[in-house]
Amino acid sequence: MVTISLCMIVKNEEKVLDRCLESFNGIADEIIIADTGSEDCTKEIAQRYTDKIYDFQWIDDFAAARNFSFSKASMEYILWTDADDMLLEEDRQKFLQLKEVLNPTIDCVTMNINLAFDQYGKVTHTIRSNRLVKRSCSFRWVGPVHEYLEMGGNILNSDIGVTHKRVHHDVDRNIKIYEQRLKNNEEFGPRDLYYYANELLDHRRHQEAAEYYIKFLDAGKGWFEDNVAACWKLADIHIILNDWDNAMKYSLQSFKYDTPRAESCCRMGFLFLNINMYKQATFWYKLATLLEKPNENMGLTNSACWTWLPHLQLCVCYDRLGLYQLAYDHNELARLYIPDDQRVLYNKQYLENTLNIKNNGDQ
Predict the structure, then answer these.
(1) Exposed (0-12), middle (13-18) or buried (19+): which is 266, by Cβ within 10 Å?
(2) Which segments of 87-224 are extended strands (E)?
(3) Close Cβ partners of 93 (under 8 Å, ≥ 6 residues apart)
(4) Same structural domain for residues 25 and 147?
(5) In this predicted model, what pLDDT tens digit does every residue of 266-302 receive, in sequence order?
(6) Could you tell me where the DSSP H helices lie in 260-323?
(7) What positions does the domain Glycosyltransferase 2-like occupy (predicted)?
(8) Do residues 26 and 152 both lie within one domain?
(9) How confident is the model at residue 169 (pLDDT cuts 50, 70, 90)?
């Protein structure tokens, strides 16, 4: 069995830290806590689980803090997590099993980060992340904000899910770091351009966000998953700005970087549906239903686009085209995924009544 160091950086995490550490308890052979200036009970909570608590003077550099926490690890593998992450019991058991059988030739294990859930508790948005790495590889964190772990080697893509349940967040922290760097005349690389654009979008500064997404794409040096996501976000910005031509342009541009994703097809369908071009919308939503979801996609995945959403939208399109049986059929396919959804139940009753009236009228 391999041994694991759990490494974290924390600040004022008293609302979530106990939940996080309890879920990883028994998986980690040691827990390393790098505190960047907590003023609440974070340290007291951490002391229930470990005596390896270190102060790290905050210097507006997340990579530096994470590298510091990694430097304190002594086990064979290092697992990193944030305080608002946790393992659900099913994933906790998977992790314990992985620890029993992990081949020591593996340098890195990726896991699914579950970002959002629907009313049924099903995961709606995920992203895959490098989470467990071999300490002897000396992988390093890079980037003062939206840092990433620079790594390679023999990678195992696991089916373990880490659930991200954010309770609080300093919404201005990251954008302030970026803007201070701009004031210092730092030159942004592709990753900085992309994540600064994300921060601008989160702050509803849509025109500025679009400018930086375009700078990122024009640089031509971004990771292909970020290129795809930048196109989606540019499309969404132009939808907000009621600029349908550019929304369509950037939705299509995502195909330049990878084969069509269901998320792209659903955006195209949405654009045509909103200008009452139902046949064109039907084409794109139907294409979304035919695509095979990639097993190891490292980018953001919207599960709705790969399951019920295109069927629900096809129901709308076929209804407006007067093809009520097709509308009913696709509503039933959507109902397989979201059986208690009020939209689906309304559609079912409406279409059953419509089909009954139509069939009776045809007799």
Answers:
(1) buried
(2) 108-117, 123-134, 140-142, 148-150, 155-164
(3) none
(4) yes
(5) 999 999 999 999 999 999 999 999 998 876 666 788 9
(6) 262-273, 278-290, 309-320
(7) 5-125
(8) yes
(9) low
